[in-house]
Amino acid sequence: MTAEPADRAARSRGRRLGVMGGTFDPIHHGHLVAASEVANMFDLDEVVFVPTGRPWQKSDQLVSPAEDRYLMTVIATAENPQFSVSRIDIDRGGPTYTTDTLADLRAENPDAELFFITGADALNQILSWRRPGDLFDQAHFIGVTRPGHTLTDPGFPAGSVSLVEVPALAISSTDCRARVAKGQPIWYLVPDGVVRYISKRRLYRDG
Ligand SMILES: Nc1ncnc2c1ncn2[C@@H]1O[C@H](COP(=O)(O)OP(=O)(O)OP(=O)(O)O)[C@@H](O)[C@H]1O
Ligand SMILES: O=C(O)c1ccc[n+]([C@@H]2O[C@H](COP(=O)([O-])O)[C@@H](O)[C@H]2O)c1
């Protein structure tokens, strides 16, 4: 039996939905720990990982095909019943703007509370994102600590951003890519299935 729209709306009412956006090239344990910690601290029902389609602020660097980044994100999150992956930023096409991500997720989840999770480095850049003034009305932002970056509030609108400490994992996608290019292991930096996917698809071999 399929659910009536009213049932679906009732089920999504009051849901607390975390949103973890990222290029995930590749996804690593720093991303997963941040999402897991925030889900616990903020009593989230679900965290949806949203791989970027075209990350316009990384246009000066080579980014792996969206389908590879999407599949690695699915592999990394598959075993956690609280985690899911959305294709919205990939399927929309064009440069990826978080204001669009949040508008689309709002349309899919009209009654959910949205919490956008971001590391300290990304949060520090947020005023350079598209329509920063709108973002804080679209979701509550949660900035998480990340080794090597300072987590500060430069004067965000009152009550719009929470800054939280998560277990420190000095892992970055840049470092994982560089390690693969040099033939060094990335076991335990990323989930095992992601190590195998990178090897199977021969990603990052050319530096
Ligand atoms: N080790 C980490 N601890 C906490 N947050 C992280 C960590 N790594 C990434 N993040 C956050 O996850 C989100 C997505 O990050 P992204 O996919 O760009 O990974 P990255 O490791 O920063 O990649 P790259 O090195 O290619 O820039 C961003 O908000 C980022 O700040
Ligand atoms: O909205 C923007 O203009 C914007 C600019 C840069 C980054 N973002 C978002 O920030 C998140 C982390 O991005 P990245 O590229 O650091 O992985 C991801 O969800 C991006 O879509 C968003």
TrEMBL record:
Gene Ontology terms, MF aspect: ATP binding; nicotinate-nucleotide adenylyltransferase activity
Residues annotated as signal peptide: none
Coiled-coil region list: none
Enzyme class, first EC level, given as a word: transferase
Keywords: ATP-binding, NAD, Nucleotide-binding, Nucleotidyltransferase, Pyridine nucleotide biosynthesis, Transferase
Pathway: Cofactor biosynthesis; NAD(+) biosynthesis; deamido-NAD(+) from nicotinate D-ribonucleotide: step 1/1
UniProt-listed Enzyme Commission number(s): 2.7.7.18
This protein's name: Probable nicotinate-nucleotide adenylyltransferase
Lineage of producing organism: Bacteria, Bacillati, Actinomycetota, Actinomycetes, Kitasatosporales
